[in-house]
Specification:
Length: 597
């Protein structure tokens, strides 16, 4: 089984790499069709460029819904829906009669698959590679660089041979590989072990000291033994159990009273024997009382969705349990004096902690925004924020700082890369040589994406510090890029751009996973890429406005580099802010405990 799991990991990695190739090839290759669409529909460049804008905006909006789908149904469903959006949007674009229809089919519909395909690939890698995630993530994301380098020339060749409609059909054939990816992402079937075999393999005596943890967690499940929630009928069963326990305690109290009288009558003849009998009876009474009370309290705490009729039953059950605890404490005090008067308090504290744990693990309250000390059902707004991942902004300092930093990076990164070729032409370099700078950028980006995982595994610096260092290097390169205007210097700048951007683009998901954990990673990655898209949309306009204001590319590069360097320092604030938040939470818990006492 372990060997099969290792083999499947490499297939998942291969499919994630293929997904990134298709994603980048579809997202970055539309520029090849713009000239053909402009001539065919005899329209302006503004109208045709709106297709790419709608595609980027649709990909921005699809990040959060795709995170919800992946969290609820799995990566295979996310990849399947992304493939359906890609294929349906591209196929319908073949029959588009005007640019407006293209904006809807190739822009909006195809853009819906961007978030699903990209997020499914990253989350699938995180799920199967518990160790070595940074290396696997770098190999998978290298597919984006390969897609940007290989797919546009291939589509240009297809346009020359078959026209733009034929090229779109060939692109559909490439996109249909996502259905194979969805099959590979499907988790393997788990073999359910029969309950009889589990009982035979793990016998346990109820109330014994060697009772297994599985038996201790049994009350957390439903009445039927599965992971379902407790219902009103469950509480009714606990009520009947509470009444039986109450009668049992009364009988034991009478028995204990009789034992005390017998013990006093024979105290001179059999003192050792009487003491032993008393200890055994007391131990049996406390063990049975502790286990039954704990199971009943857990059963009540497990059902936060009980309606109004069942709440009265739960309250009555709680009163019965309190009476039982008080009776058991009185019996213990009568037999052994005041030395055990705090045992009931300790038991109550244990049950309160377990009850809080059950509330936290409920499906509507398993996030950082779940109210641990409240039985109120969360509102629709709270549930919506929780399932979308937006509730992380209220509880995770690192997540907030990383998204803010990502907006600044997208603002400068996309804007500068859009105007890199134009700035080289502005400095007197011919257009053919200037366009080669993007290929140099792609080569450097691909190399560092493949090597970034091994760089993280050296543990020379943490992923957060490597991320900050890469962003600072990118910003510094933007500033010094305006020092000279020779073609050789532009080649060096393009290589430095590719190396630094490839490093922090690969470490995005690694740092995010360290901040939010695997439990919230699928939701967080959708929100993260959505905020990244905001910067991508504003970046080219921002750089163009700075150029128009100064009539020179010096100002956009200087401002962009300075903003990147300053924004990278936001992540350095995460450790002190997190420690400050933890101290405030600890102080508030202490204050609440003191007020409760």
């Amino acid at each position: 089984m372990e060997k099969g799991h290792k083999v499947r990991r490499w297939f998942v990695l291969l499919c994630a790499h293929m997904s990134m190739v298709i994603f980048a090839g579809t997202y970055r290759s539309l520029g090849v069709f713009l000239v053909e669409w402009k001539d065919y529909f005899n329209t302006t460049s503004t109208e045709i460029s709106a297709i790419i804008t709608v595609l980027a905006a649709s990909g921005l909006l699809s990040g959060i819904p795709s995170g919800i789908v992946i969290t609820r149904y799995g990566c295979h469903y996310g990849s399947l829906l992304g493939g359906i959006a890609f294929v349906s949007g591209t196929v319908t674009s073949v029959f588009a009669p005007n640019p407006l229809v293209l904006c809807f089919t190739m822009g909006f519909v195809t853009g819906l698959g961007i978030g699903a395909v990209r997020n499914s690939a990253v989350v699938a890698i995180a799920q199967v590679f518990k160790k070595g995630f940074s290396r696997a993530n770098g190999i998978a994301l290298a597919g984006a660089s390969i897609g940007m380098m290989l797919v546009p020339p291939l589509l240009q060749l297809c346009i020359d041979q078959y026209g733009w409609r034929g090229a779109l059909l060939i692109l559909v054939g490439i996109q249909m590989h996502l259905f194979i990816v969805a099959l590979i992402f499907r988790p393997p079937q788990r073999v359910n072990v029969p309950e009889e075999n589990q009982t035979k393999s793990r016998p346990a005596v109820r109330g014994g000291k060697n009772e297994t943890k599985e038996h201790e967690l049994e009350p957390l499940r439903g009445v039927h033994g599965d992971n379902s929630k407790s219902t009103c009928s469950d509480v009714t069963l606990h009520l009947s159990s509470a009444k039986d326990i109450s009668q049992s305690v009364d009988e034991k109290q009478k028995l204990n009273t009789g034992d005390d009288m017998t013990a006093h009558s024979h105290v001179d003849t059999e003192p050792d024997k009487t003491k032993t009998d008393h200890d055994e009876i007391q131990k049996t009474t406390e063990d049975d009382h502790e286990i039954d009370t704990e199971q009943n309290c857990l059963g009540v705490a497990q059902s936060p969705k009980i309606n109004g009729d069942c709440e009265g039953v739960a309250k009555f059950c709680t009163k019965e349990i309190d009476i039982i605890e008080r009776d058991g404490t009185e019996v213990s005090n009568k037999r052994h004096g005041p030395s055990h008067e705090h045992s009931g308090l300790k038991e109550n504290e244990l049950l309160m902690n377990l009850s809080d744990e059950v509330r936290i693990n409920e499906p509507n309250g398993d996030g950082p925004s779940a109210p641990c000390a409240s039985n109120r059902r969360p509102s629709r707004l709270q549930r919506g924020l929780h399932f979308s991942g937006l509730s992380l902004f209220c509880n995770n300092v690192g997540f907030c700082l990383l998204n803010l930093c990502q907006i600044m990076i997208g603002l400068c990164y996309t804007g500068i890369l859009t105007h890199l070729v134009a700035s080289a032409v502005y400095d007197g370099i011919d257009q053919q040589s200037a366009s080669f700078l993007l290929s140099v950028f792609g080569i450097g980006n691909l190399i560092v994406r493949l090597a970034s995982g091994w760089l993280v595994e050296l543990h020379f610096l943490s992923p957060e510090h490597l991320y900050v260092l890469a962003v600072v290097a990118f910003g510094a390169t933007m500033i010094v890029s305006r020092a000279w205007s020779s073609y050789e210097w532009y080649v060096v700048v393009a290589i430095l751009f590719g190396l630094s951007s490839g490093l922090f683009r690969t470490l995005d998901s690694v740092v995010l996973k360290r901040y939010v954990g695997m439990k919230y990673f699928a939701r967080a990655i959708g929100v993260f890429y959505a905020f990244s898209g905001v910067g991508d949309l504003i970046g080219p306009v921002f750089a163009g406005a700075l150029y128009d204001a100064s009539n020179s590319y010096d100002l956009p590069f200087y401002v962009g580099g300075s903003v990147l360097i300053v924004s990278s320092g936001l992540l350095l604030l995460e450790p002190p802010l997190r420690r400050l938040k933890e101290r405030r939470q600890a102080r508030s818990r202490i204050d609440s405990d003191e007020s409760a006492v």
